[in-house]
Design brief:
Elements: H1 10-61, H2 70-74, E1 89-96, E2 101-108, E3 121-124, E4 129-131, H3 139-142
Antiparallel strand pairs: 1-2, 2-3, 3-4
Length: 144
Amino acid sequence: MRNAEKGFTLIELMIVVAVIAILSAIAYPSYQEYVKRSRRTEAQSLLNEAAAREERWRAQNGSYMTGTTAADIAKLKLPNVDRSENGYYTLAIAVVANDGGYTLTATRAGAQTSDTKCGNFTLDATGKKGIAASTPGTVAACWR
């Protein structure tokens, strides 16, 4: 009587490797999109916090903070000056001359520069939300 060999054949191992490769080819891009989408909330948080600080500045000084340099942005006393919490976005302030308002822009930085769906985020003094014009995403989808 012959003893049965225990273990896997090469064909069985190749099938398992192929199945794992197919599953990872499907899952990894979805994971990357999820990570980018979660980082977008950092831009939204940065813009909302900066807008609140601008409104406080206006209440205390009679007009919006009009400086556009990093030193001027520091006057708003944001926790990370002109960067988001993890550094995926940087803040810029553009002064709107005709109505005395402002437009805040969160520009992608670091690993988030690969986010081409929504691009950079904007928020103005009237509360109007926006994204970069050349991106395929919509304001509603990106700001959710």
